[in-house]
Amino acid sequence: MEAEKMFEMLKKSQEEKGYYFSNDRERVLDLLEALVRNKERYGYMACPCRLASGNRDHDKDIICPCVYREPDVKEYGSCYCNLYASMEWNDNKISHEYVPERRPPEKMIF
After folding, report:
1. Number of C-alpha atoms within 13 angstroms, CB side, residue 19?
2. Phi-psi bin for 104: left (phi > 0), alpha (psi -120 to 50), beta?
3. What is the distance of C-alpha 53 from the center of its chain?
4. Is this model's pTM higher than 0.85 or not?
5. C-alpha to C-alpha distance for 14 and 22, rounded to whole angstroms
6. Per-residue DSSP letters for 44-108?
7. What is the CA 70 to chain-centroid distance, rounded?
8. Average pLDDT over residues 46-54
9. Would you place residue 52 in the very low, low, confident or very high pLDDT band (cuts 50, 70, 90)?
10. How far apart are CA 45 and CA 43, in angstroms?
């Protein structure tokens, strides 16, 4: 399963940066499967929670890990799709609030 391989590959490199996969392993594996499909479809790992255009330059902000992950995790403890989270979020030390979309509306039109 490609998602399992991706999980193991990304886990160490992202944890070194302070980003952890959500404790919801089933959701994480579903999201990683979608990343694999997007890579096959578009040639890059577009965020599975957003609509990609198929144009890498247009979508560079949503190539996982997207540019919105850092501010999302900093402010909410989790990224938009809950793939990445802080240790505090995973340990339920902070509330699991809805993470609003940060991508500008003009980037969602193609």
Report:
1. 22
2. beta
3. 17
4. yes
5. 12
6. S-B-TTS---S-HHHHGGGBSSPTTHHHHHHHHSB-TTSSEE-HHHHTTSS--------S-GGGG
7. 10
8. 95
9. very high
10. 7
Reported residue count of the chain is 110
Locate 99 and state its tokens. 């993470």
In which element (H, E) is residue 21 found? strand 20-21
Structure-token pair, residue 62: 């949503």
| Opening angle at CA 103, ends 45 and 49, nearest 5 | 45
Task: Copy the structure tokens of residue 84.
Answer: 């990445």
CB within 8 Å of 107: residues ≥ 6 apart: 58, 61, 62
Whether the per-residue pLDDT at 108 is higher than 90: the answer is no
Q: Quick one: pLDDT at residue 27?
A: 95
Calculate the CA dihedral of residues 5, 8, 14, 20 and round it to 10 degrees.
110
Nearest to 28 by CA among 82, 95, 99, 91: 82
pLDDT-derived band of residue 53, with 50, 70 and 90 as boundaries? Answer: very high
